[in-house]
Write a structure and sequence with these properties.
The complex is a heterodimer.
Chain A (H helix, E strand, L loop, with lengths): L2 H34 L18 E3 L2 E3 L3 E7 L10 E9 L9 E8 L4 E2 L5 E4 L5 E7 L6 E10 L2 E10 L1
Antiparallel strand pairs in A: 1-3, 2-10, 3-4, 4-8, 5-6, 5-9, 7-8, 9-10
Chain B lengths: L1 H25 L6 H10 L19 H11 L12 H4 L44 H10 L8 H11 L1 H8 L7 H5 L8 H9 L2 H23 L2 E2 L3 H11 L2 H5 L4 H11 L18 E3 L17 H6 L17 H4 L11 E3 L21 H10 L18 H11 L6 E2 L10
Helix pairs in contact in B: 2-11, 3-10, 5-10, 6-10, 13-17, 16-17
Classes of the chains: A alpha+beta, B mainly alpha.
Chain lengths: ~160, ~425
């Protein structure tokens, strides 16, 4: 037997075994981590299905027909968070209506209760846009949001359906 | 030889574990996407950090939390020097007491709620009559059926026993003659206490109130630090999210798993018990029978106390700005709408906290689930937020079984704290 070649074969075989050994350890560690990781370790969240919601309606009560748009500033309605919404009032030609008196309220018809908060409406610097602060939904389900806007002689009412 | 044996061992182990991972992943999930999203919303890993409390600038100060933990266990803060916060919020009972009605100096009208996770709420007590955790912590100190202390008594304990700790956190202790503190004085409480309070000059009242308010802020800092460890449900959910469905199936029994499916599905529990703390901290009417303390208006009568509380968010002792006071700014006063409304409690550790509801009306979880399933009608002027579910006996017991999987240890970083000598 040729001595140098034996040495090479021996060391090759040692290298292979060492490699296999290391691979085994790594696979074991990965498997253990995959299975037994801490229950609190964050996992990438699945994409949220919630879409943004702008609610638009026109229901004339008296005077010129206007459009009432209701928008959550957070981009979408949220449960359990005190949020600000906007009411935007425009006339038939799409012109913003300023100096309107705007009232807002929300109820849950199936439960006989309203919002857990008392929202406040105020004018905003942008013509035709009114701030509604303090809107919170206490639970998921079917809500009705009512907006009444009085602009000069025109009285407009809009009831929005919202399923959370 | 050793190398070969080790290799064979590790390769076999790797093969076995690898196979387990593959089988785990291949095992079909019992949950569809919508259900998985519901599981994730309840999972403790979805719980964010404790929200900031701008009304208490010491809320996240570890020294304040340490002081709060000592005060929490200090019975000298009560009229008879035998009742501490921990007498009713017992750490070993998930910070409740196992009683239908809280027992301090007398029997209170409601049960003792847990304090763990309360820092995520924006209103406090069963009826919401306080708007911060530190304002809440002050109320039982002076409650005649709870600890019955006077404001000067509380300030005196702080001056006598906690001055160095206090000053390290809050700055110099307001100066007030010791003999003035020895007199039992409080703007609330007995006539004698109120008269003694009236005899204090405004600067002395301010000093006492300041020490008193900071006592609440330290107590709140401590309670903010209490957290739930993951429960068996959380371990299960984590494995489901990883796709380890075979392993997950070993963590919940089929009955518990069926209960979970009902909880997030047909039984509609998550409408109110939502999020990782299993509560949205909102108020609801539940068509409940009266407790032994009689009819209770709940949230309907909270408006006046919260608005008049000198320690509320808009008050002199709050560190917040008016824009932080969302609860007070948008507080709804409509009494009829909130009649018999009570705050949704967390369901974590619920199996440890019988009896149930705001006055211990139900002895066990079976009775609770039966009530929600039946949803008795109510008469005007009450309304009800629950409707009959239509469960059978087995499904009700599955729900109860699931609630048992929410039990966990509570992490208290200051568990070793003891009152000062």
């Amino acid at each position: 037997m040729n001595l140098p070649s034996t040495i090479i074969r021996l060391s090759t075989s040692r290298t292979i075994w060492l490699g296999l050994f290391a691979t085994g350890v790594v696979v074991v560690l990965i498997a253990v981590r995959a299975i037994f990781a801490d229950a609190r370790t964050p996992v990438a969240p699945s994409p949220s299905a919630a879409a943004s919601a702008t609610l638009v309606k026109s229901e004339r009560v008296r005077g010129e027909l206007m459009t009432i748009r209701l928008e959550p500033l957070a981009g979408r309605p949220r449960i359990g968070v005190t949020d600000e919404w906007s009411v935007v009032v425009t006339n038939e030609r799409g012109l913003p209506q300023k100096d309107c008196q705007v009232a807002f309220d929300g109820t849950m018809p199936a439960h006989g209760h309203g919002l857990p908060t008392a929202p406040r409406v105020s004018a905003s610097p942008e013509a035709g846009r009114y701030r509604v602060e303090g809107v919170r939904f206490s639970m998921g389900g079917y809500w009705q949001l009512d907006v009444v806007a009085t602009c000069g002689n025109a009285l407009q009412r809009a009831r929005f359906d919202l399923r959370l | 030889m050793i190398w070969r044996a080790a290799c064979v061992f590790f390769l076999s182990l790797a093969l076995a574990l690898g196979a387990l991972v593959v089988v785990n992943r291949a095992w079909s999930s019992p949950w569809n996407d919508e259900q998985q999203a519901a599981l994730r919303s309840l999972w403790i890993g979805s719980l964010g950090p404790v929200p900031a409390d701008p009304t208490n600038r010491f809320a996240d100060n570890p020294n304040a939390a340490r002081l709060g933990a000592r005060l929490f266990r200090d019975a000298r803060l009560s009229a008879n020097r035998r009742i501490s916060c921990a007498s009713c919020h017992k750490p070993e009972q998930s910070f409740t007491d196992g009683l239908a009605l809280a027992r301090g100096l007398g029997d209170g009208p409601r049960s003792t709620p847990s304090v763990v996770g309360a820092a995520y709420a924006s209103t406090y007590f069963w009826d919401g009559r306080r708007d911060s955790q530190w304002a809440q912590a002050l109320t039982p100190l002076e409650g005649p059926l709870e600890m019955g202390a006077t404001r000067t008594l509380v300030a005196n304990v702080l001056v006598q026993h906690y001055k160095p700790e206090y000053e390290a956190i809050f700055g110099p202790m307001p100066s007030i003659p010791t003999d003035r503190l020895r007199e039992a004085a409080s703007p609330l409480g007995s006539e004698a206490a109120r008269e003694a309070w009236a005899r204090l000059v405004p600067a002395e009242q301010e000093a006492v109130n300041r020490i008193f308010a900071n006592t609440g802020k330290a107590l709140a800092a401590y309670q903010r630090a209490l957290t739930f460890e993951p429960s068996r449900f959380d371990s299960y959910a984590a494995q489901v999210f990883r796709g380890n469905h075979l392993l997950a199936s070993t963590l919940l029994s089929p009955e518990e798993s069926a209960g979970l499916e009902l909880f997030i599905g047909r039984a509609r529990c998550t409408l109110c018990h939502r999020g990782p703390l299993f509560t949205g901290h909102e108020f609801f009417a539940l068509a409940l029978p009266f407790g032994s303390s009689g009819p209770d208006p709940g949230r309907a009568k909270a408006s006046k106390p919260v608005r008049e509380d000198p320690f509320n968010c808009l008050g002199h002792y709050s560190d917040g700005k008016p824009e932080h006071c969302l609860e007070l700014r948008f507080w709804a006063d409509n009494e009829l709408a909130f009649l018999a409304n009570f705050k949704t409690p967390s369901l974590r550790n619920v199996a440890l906290t019988a009896p149930y509801m705001h006055a211990g009306q139900f002895a066990n979880l079976t009775e609770v689930v039966e009530h929600y399933d039946r949803a008795p009608p109510v008469e005007f002027p009450e309304h009800t937020d629950i409707q009959p579910i239509g469960l059978n006996a087995r499904e009700r017991s599955q729900l109860v079984a699931f609630l048992g999987t929410l039990t966990s240890e509570i992490h208290d970083p200051y568990a070793a704290a003891r009152p000062a000598d």
